[in-house]
Amino acid sequence: MIQFFNVTKTYNGVRALLGVTLQVEKGEFVFLVGPSGAGKSTMLKMIFREEVPTKGQIYVCGRSTIRMRHHEIPFLRRQIGMVFQDFRLLQERTAYENVAFAMQVIGASPAEIKKRVPEVLEMMGLKGHAGMFPQQLSGGEQQRVAIARALVNKPTLLVADEPTGNLDRDTAWEIINCLQEINNQGTTVVIATHAREIVDTLRQRVIALEKGRLVRDEYEGAYAHAT
Amino acid sequence: MPMLPKTWLYIVQETLRSLKRNGWINFAAAGTTAVSLFILGVAILLVIDTNFIASSVESDVEIMAYLQDGVKEDAVTALRAQIKAIPQVKDVSFISKDQALTSLEQQFGQSGQLRQSLGGSNPLPDAFKVSTTDPRQVTGVANLLTRMPGVDKVRYGQGVVEKLLELTYYMRLIGLTVVVLLALCAIFLIATTIRLTMFARRREIVIMKSVGATDWYVRWPFLLEGIILGGAGAVVAIAVLFFSYSTLASKVMETLPFIPLMYDNLVLLQLFLSLLAAGVGLGIIGSLISVHRYLQA
Questions:
Q1: Based on the structure, what is the number of domains in chain B?
Q2: Where would I find the beta strands (DSSP E) of chain B?
Q3: Which residue among A6, A60, B19, B198 is least crowded, i.e. fewest CB within 10 A of its CB?
Q4: ∠A144-A147-A150 over CA atoms, to 5°?
Q5: CB contacts, 8 Å: A48 with chain B
Q6: Is there a contact between A120 and A152 (Cβ–Cβ < 8 Å)?
């Protein structure tokens, strides 16, 4: 699903990533951990083809993101759902419209949208919130709308950048459980996070970055080094 | 321009939404475009009218070829044929010394007195009045006439033609410069407006791109907005231009009939269609500049 070969990224001479090699298989659930500035966001941006590596090679969904033409990028992104710490919802649109927007944008027909959006909202437990605007929703609900939007086009990969960063403990767990459920249905999930408790409890694969280097890659790993 | 037909509705919706949302900005852009295109139209009309006036003055410039005294009638006939044979000559007419004196008398008003005071003799020469097909050939034709047998002196509006031609040349040059500068202003203003709209919608654009919208999908509503802004500006400019010019033309015709103003519906229609096309073109260029910058970032 994702392959990094000796990937290095520098921004104006500053190294963000250095010689990272890793592979994520289809259907995996992966935590990406490390202190701020370790290169987590850079890595996600490269998966998403917002950035290309300075050196090395990246394959996402079987395609080299380096050799990819500019007009092919949107079609890669349609296979990837993105979730952000700040939700990135459109404030002047309802929950339903926010989710439907992602389908309109890729040219789905109104009939498809009408069928699919309620499905995803129900899956995310937002059935009664469809007509509400983001400001009327709690943080956890807003993030679930964002996840619904990420899922509505049935991506094979879901990438989340600090999805629980703005949420309280209980709500964070609620969101992580959602993401686990999505993973159980076959979607590959990659989460960059600082939520130590969640990582330590779930014992999933953990990839740790520090100062741009991959320092640890463990299955059933913990947030910090096992002592 | 790749596009799925079913997204047309969305694009129109988004364009209307943004026109409604940024009402005053759009109003300012369309208004400034209208002003620019109006001035552009005035500049073009000025150039057209100067050319029109200049060409009617130019066509009035005639050459007078005065003959030596005592040229025989058959020589005059031969000379006439010779002048007529010059390809650039449009028309030749012979003015005998008698005719010249008569018309001079008419100008002075009191018939008979002039002849009397001249003591019966007529000092005026016979002459040919020659007009050319193109005013720029006046000088060349005049030179040819000077060298013909029997021709004494050749007179034409020396300098006047050259000055007029020079004037129209500069008018055209200045007009063109003004037009280009104004077009650049309009493009800049539309580009700025579209950039403001894009800034207002930056979150949407980021989300669109992150869920896999193609560049053209992002671009279209802004392009359409630019077209509407430029087109609306052009329509306003055309309306104002039409009413003010037709009023001006009829006033001038009433009060200053000797100033020939162009009033040709076909020419005006062409001008108005060109202005509309220019407005739409400026809108497209302006929005593409902004969208291009935004999508690159």
A1: 2
A2: 63-67, 89-95, 127-132, 151-155
A3: A6
A4: 155
A5: 210
A6: yes
Of A90, A105, A149, the CB nearest to B217: A105
The residue range of the domain holding B45 is 5-57+163-296
Residue A19 lies in a domain: no
Residues B106 and B188 in one domain: no
SS (H, E, C) B115-151: HHHCCCCCCCCCEEEEEECCHHHHHHHHHHHHCCCCE
Statement to judge: residues B126 and B266 lie in one domain: no
Strand pairing of A80-84 and A63-64?
Answer: unpaired
Same domain, B91 and B120: yes
Q: Are residues B174 and B283 in the same domain?
A: yes
Residues, chain A, total?
A: 227
Token pair, residue A176, equals 């992580």
Residue B132 CB coordination number (10 Å) = 25
C-alpha atoms less than 13 angstroms from C-alpha of B5 in its C-beta half-sphere: 0
Distances B239 to A53, A181, B41, B236, B274 between C-alpha atoms, Å: 56, 63, 11, 5, 14
Give the pLDDT confidence of B155-207 residue by residue, as tens digits.
876 566 566 667 777 877 887 787 788 778 778 878 888 887 788 788 888 88
Q: Of B110, B128, B156, which closes a domain?
A: B156
In this structure, the answer to whether residues B283 and B173 fall within a common structural domain is yes
Range of the domain at A150: 88-154
Q: How confident is the model at residue B7 (pLDDT cuts 50, 70, 90)?
A: low
Mean pLDDT over each residue of chain B, to the nearest integer: 80
Report the domain count for chain A.
Answer: 1
Nearest by CB to B6, from A71, A74, A109: name it.
A109
CA nearest neighbour of A78 among A154, A179, A26: A154
Chain B: nearest CA to A148, how far in angstroms? 12
Q: For residues B277 and B282, what is the distance between their CA atoms, to the nearest angstrom? A: 8
The answer as to whether A110 is a domain residue is yes
Can you tell me whether residue B271 is helix, strand or coil? Answer: helix
Two tokens at A141?
Answer: 């609900």
pLDDT in tens, A8-61: 999 988 889 999 999 999 999 999 999 988 999 999 999 999 899 999 999 999
Q: How far is CA B103 from CA A165, B3, B148, in A?
A: 103, 77, 26
pLDDT at residue A129 above 80? yes
A167 touches chain B (CB under 8 A): no
Q: Do residue B177 and residue B284 come from a single domain?
A: yes
In whole angstroms, what is the distance from residue B26 CA to residue B196 CA? 10
The interface pTM score, or ipTM, of the predicted complex is 0.83
Sequence-distant (≥ 6) Cβ neighbours of residue B123 within 8 angstroms: none
Number of CB pairs, chain A paired with chain B, less than 8 A apart: 50
* Inter-chain CB proximity B204 and A90 less than 8 Å: yes
Q: Report which residue type is found at A161.
A: D
Last residue in a domain, options B105, B128, B156: B156
